[in-house]
Structures are given as structure tokens and as C-alpha cells.
Specification:
The complex is a heterodimer of chains A (309) and B (228).
Chain A lengths: L4 E2 L7 H4 L6 H4 L20 E2 L22 H23 L9 H9 L7 H15 L12 H11 L2 H13 L5 E8 L19 E8 L10 E7 L6 H4 L3 H12 L2 H35 L18
Antiparallel strand pairs in A: 1-2, 3-4, 3-5
Helix pairs in contact in A: 3-5, 4-5, 7-9
Chain B lengths: L9 E7 L5 E5 L19 H31 L3 H6 L1 H20 L13 H11 L2 H14 L4 E8 L4 E8 L11 E8 L6 H4 L3 H8 L5 H11 L2
Antiparallel strand pairs in B: 1-2, 3-4, 3-5
Helix pairs in contact in B: 1-3, 5-7
Classes of the chains: A mainly alpha (309), B alpha+beta (228).
């Protein structure tokens, strides 16, 4: 919602100046933020300064449509109170700050602050996590994945059953509040802003990770594919202390494997693009070294140096 | 009295180390509540008390004991990787057992001690440091409300400096993880399982109401023991 205020010449509408690919300075390489399309709220009107606000996005189904596996009452509180609260609180926190106008993902990365969490992290992370969680489920969900997703699961976990076992175990053993994730890992050892929980030279792998409170795999530069919320508010009305039962029902009756598959395609495309980018850069550096000239000098090669996408 | 099956078990593992000594190992057990499950109504409903005690606390005790048995074995085998790997389960479940054991004593029915203000020595220490009991309660509630995720909020006594403080710990970390001289006087569980069935997402209402069943007599006794 745009709130017109007197235009100040000293302020810069940063949201319109930032390139769509996010914050190159923080992570080293521009990350195409595939998830950003609906999370970004930034409009500019000539003559006015705009305050960007996040909206509470509804789940892609009615609040009663996951019954009897997840009750309407749970959705009413979980989405209607908890998720809404995170949105309202973040909007209050960012007003008039440098975070105002940034995409949600960028706010998460900046607020993560290499593990020394800034006050906006909890709200920003939780907004993103809950959007992702609602979209990880669907009425009549469950069953088994197919296609590329199933192939990768079988490759990286041995079998679908073993994957399920490992995912359930991660979700059950996240002490305290948090989340369990299936993610696509296509990065290198160094993740810049955080400590990589799975450092290894192998990438383009499916991994299961768990995270406390509001943390999510974006901070490790992984691509999340599926999540389950294991904060107690996610299951206490329906299952009380029986978290393992909740996890089983989630896998058997709620997971939207369609959503997971399309997220995998995006993640693979992102990884491929990043690989091409890195190869291009490597070739440039090799060419420069071969010429024996410094980076500042004109280098005669066929590649266009420009970073403009 | 809330009735429960409680048995103090003593396990002889028959473990031998190089000098051929048998180690005996005592496990922990779930303490009885000093009141009935319904006795804290309407502040904390019966169903919460039952689940909290019989399910959550019991499962901390069970898992704590399991981890200790495995630790005992790993110690005997000098299996350092396992010894180290067990630490998080011990901290979590042992912490859960410690914290909840204190919590049940921190509470008392309204008809008995619940809500009655602290005795003079603790009362005047609170007034000296915080201005008033109300001010302390506001501070505890603010810290409890601000805690993100799961954890506890404490009124602590630093037994070396003889000073009170308000602390928070994450998950089931016991108070001593915030400072080795800290003694818990009052701990309030702000995990969602402590209030969700009754108060839903409004943690602040739980925090406002719980003071009606706080047992200040217990807190005062601990205080007087450390600050005679």
C-alpha cells in the first residue's frame, strides 16, 4: 500500500535502483532470486516517497481443505494469527529503515548477519518459511513423487522409503522450535554469510537439513524444496505432544510433490546458470593472466566484460 | 495428590573396566506433582497439566535416562566420539528434567500458596532492586514475551553477588548455562506446550495469569538459604 508523503530530495527510492538479482556485495555473486516474484513490494510514484509493505499471502487452498489431517482451527491460528503477526511486526520494524523496500529474501540474508541475528530476522524468516510451508501442502496430498524428483531422491537417499525415514527423523529430532527441510544443494564450501552445515565438494545433491526457530536454507545458499514446521503451534491443537504422528500425516496426506518438483526444476536451472557464470568468470581471469596484464587494463578478448544482465 | 506410577530404578549394568569393578547406575524418575492436575484451574487447565507432566516431562526423563545409559557404556569403552555426541541429548533432556522439576514446585493452587507475595527478605530484595513486585513481574513478562522460539524465563539469584536478575534460556538449557553462580528462584516455561491449548497464540495472557499460581514461599526458601 503506497503512503504518499512529502518527497525528500535527500532520500533515494532504493527499491527502484537495486537490480533484480539482489545483493551481489554480500554473497559474492548475484543470485537470481527465483522466489522473489510475489514477495517484493515496491512501487514508486513520481513526487512521492513510498513505504513498501509485505502482505499476508493466503494459502493456495481454503482453511478447511486440509481436514481432517490439519484442522481448520489450526490453520485459522497458524496462518491467521501467527503468520499474520510476523507480517505486521516486520512491516513495523522496517518502516523508514534501509530494509524498507528490499525484497523479503534480501532482508532475511542481511538480518541473518552471519549468525549474529538482527531483530528483523525472526519475522522475515518466519514470513518466508510459512509462505513456503503452505505451498508445500495441498488437499489430497501425499503419495509419491515421480520423474526427475524421484530419480534424484533415489540417487541421493537410496530409496524413497529411506528418504522418508531420514526426513521424519530430522523433523522429530529438531530440539525446540524449528523446521526440517529437503533442499537442493548446489554451492561450494564457502557460503559467505553463514557456516555451511554440509560443507563438501559434492554439490547438485538433495540434502535433508533441520534449522532452529526462523532459520531457513536460504542463509546457506541452498535451494529449499520442501519444509515441515515443527514449532509446537503447528501441531499442538491437532496432535498435542505427538509430533511423530503429525510428521507421518504430513508425509502421507499433505505433501504437495508437484510443488516440490517445480521447485527442483527452478533450483536446477539456477545451479546451471551459476555454473555458467562461474565458468565465464574463470575464463576471463585465465585470459587476463595469459595476457600478463592487470584487471584494470584493457584486455583484448571476445567476452563482454559487462555485468549487465 | 496426582497419582502416578513411579519407581526408582537402579540398574546394575555389570560393566567391567580394566580393574574389574562393577559400576552401578541410578536412573532418574518423574517427580510427583505436589497437587492434583485440576488444582491450578482456571489459570492452567487440567489437560495442559496432564500432558505437560505425563507426556512432556516424562519423555525428558525417559530420554535422559537412555542417554545416560549410553554415556555410561561409552565411558567404559573410552569411546570419545560417542561421549561427545551424546552431550546434546543429555543437555536437552537432562535440562528438561531439571527445569520441569523446578517448575512444578514454583506453582501452587490459589487456595494454598498460589499468588501470595514473597516473604520479607526476598520481598524487600525485590523492592530494592526493581522498585516493586509489580515492576519485577512486568520485566519477567516482557522478557518471556520477547523470547523467540522455545525457552524459559527466570527470576535468578546470583549467589556470589547476592543479586537478583531476570534471565532467559533457550530450549531446555538450565539456568546455570547463563552463569554458574545463578540459582533459579522462579522459572516460567514459555514453550508453546505450556500454554497453547488454553491461551493459543496469546502468550502474554498466560504470562499475566500465571502469577496467580506462583508459589513465592518456595522461592523465598531458596533465597533465604543462599542469603541468610
Amino acid at each position: 500500500m503506497a503512503i504518499p508523503v512529502a518527497f525528500s530530495a535527500s532520500s533515494s527510492p532504493t527499491c527502484t535502483v537495486l537490480p533484480r538479482q539482489g545483493l551481489p556485495g554480500i554473497l559474492g555473486s548475484p543470485r537470481p532470486l527465483q522466489w522473489t516474484k510475489k514477495e517484493r513490494r515496491c512501487r514508486r510514484k513520481i513526487g512521492f516517497m513510498v513505504t513498501a509493505k509485505f502482505d499476508l499471502k493466503p494459502p493456495p487452498y481454503a482453511l478447511n481443505s486440509l481436514e481432517p489431517h490439519m484442522s481448520q482451527e489450526t490453520l485459522e491460528y497458524h496462518w491467521g494469527k501467527h503468520h499474520r503477526g510476523y507480517v505486521e511486526n516486520l512491516n513495523k520494524q522496517i518502516v523508514g529503515t534501509e530494509l524498507d523496500g528490499m525484497s523479503l529474501e534480501d532482508i532475511i540474508i542481511v538480518s541473518y548477519n552471519k549468525g549474529d541475528l538482527l531483530p528483523t530476522f525472526n519475522n522475515a524468516g518466519q514470513i518466508w518459511n510459512h509462505n513456503f510451508f503452505w505451498e508445500s501442502m495441498k488437499p489430497g496430498g501425499g503419495g509419491k513423487p515421480d520423474g526427475d524428483l524421484l530419480k534424484l531422491i533415489e540417487r541421493d537417499f537410496g530409496s524413497f522409503e529411506k528418504f522418508v525415514e531420514e526426513f521424519k527423523s530430522a523433523a522429530a529430532t529438531q530440539f525446540g522450535s524449528g523446521w526440517a527441510w529437503l533442499a537442493y544443494k548446489a554451492n561450494r564450501l564457502e557460503v559467505g554469510n553463514a557456516v555451511n552445515p554440509r560443507p563438501s565438494d559434492e554439490d547438485k545433491k538433495l540434502v535433508i537439513v533441520k534449522s532452529p526457530n526462523a532459520v531457513n536454507p536460504l542463509v546457506w545458499d541452498y535451494s529449499p524444496l520442501l519444509t515441515i514446521d515443527v514449532w509446537e503451534h503447528a501441531y499442538y491443537l491437532d496432535f498435542q505432544n505427538r509430533r511423530p504422528d503429525y510428521i507421518s500425516i504430513f508425509i502421507e496426506k499433505l505433501v504437495s510433490w508437484d510443488a516440490v518438483s517445480s521447485r527442483l526444476e527452478i533450483a536446477k536451472a539456477r545451479a546451471a546458470e551459476r555454473e555458467r557464470e562461474e565458468e565465464r568468470k574463470k575464463k576471463e581471469e585465465d585470459d587476463k593472466m595469459a595476457d600478463g596484464e592487470t584487471a584494470e587494463m584493457y584486455v583484448d578478448n571476445e567476452t563482454d566484460d559487462s555485468e549487465v544482465e | 495428590m496426582a497419582l502416578r506410577r513411579v519407581s526408582k530404578k537402579s540398574i546394575e549394568l555389570g560393566l567391567w573396566h580394566s580393574h574389574g569393578l562393577v559400576r552401578e547406575f541410578s536412573t532418574f524418575s518423574l517427580p510427583n506433582l505436589p497437587y492434583d492436575y485440576w488444582a491450578l484451574e482456571p489459570v492452567i487447565m487440567t489437560e495442559i497439566m496432564k500432558l505437560h507432566h505425563q507426556q512432556h516431562h516424562q519423555s525428558y526423563v525417559t530420554n535422559y535416562n537412555n542417554a545416560l545409559v549410553r554415556l555410561e557404556h561409552a565411558l567404559t569403552m573410552a569411546d570419545s566420539p560417542t561421549i561427545v555426541r551424546l552431550q546434546s541429548a543429555i543437555k536437552f533432556n537432562g535440562g528438561g528434567h531439571i527445569n520441569h522439576s523446578i517448575f512444578w514446585k514454583n506453582l501452587s493452587p490459589v487456595k494454598e500458596l498460589g499468588g501470595e507475595p514473597p516473604k520479607p527478605s526476598l520481598g524487600s530484595a525485590i523492592d530494592r532492586q526493581y522498585g516493586s513486585l509489580d515492576a519485577l513481574i512486568q520485566k519477567v513478562n516482557a522478557e518471556g514475551a520477547a523470547l523467540q522460539g522455545s525457552g524459559w524465563v527466570w527470576l535468578a539469584l546470583d549467589k556470589e553477588r547476592k543479586q537478583l536478575s531476570v534471565e532467559t534460556t533457550a530450549d531446555q538449557d538450565p539456568l546455570v548455562t547463563e552463569g554458574s553462580a545463578l540459582v533459579p528462584l522462579i522459572g516460567i516455561d514459555v514453550w508453546e506446550h505450556a500454554y497453547y491449548l488454553q491461551y493459543r497464540d496469546v502468550k502474554s495472557n498466560y504470562l499475566k495469569n500465571i502469577w496467580k499460581v506462583i508459589n513465592w514461599k518456595y522461592a523465598s526458601e531458596i533465597y533465604e538459604k543462599e542469603c541468610p
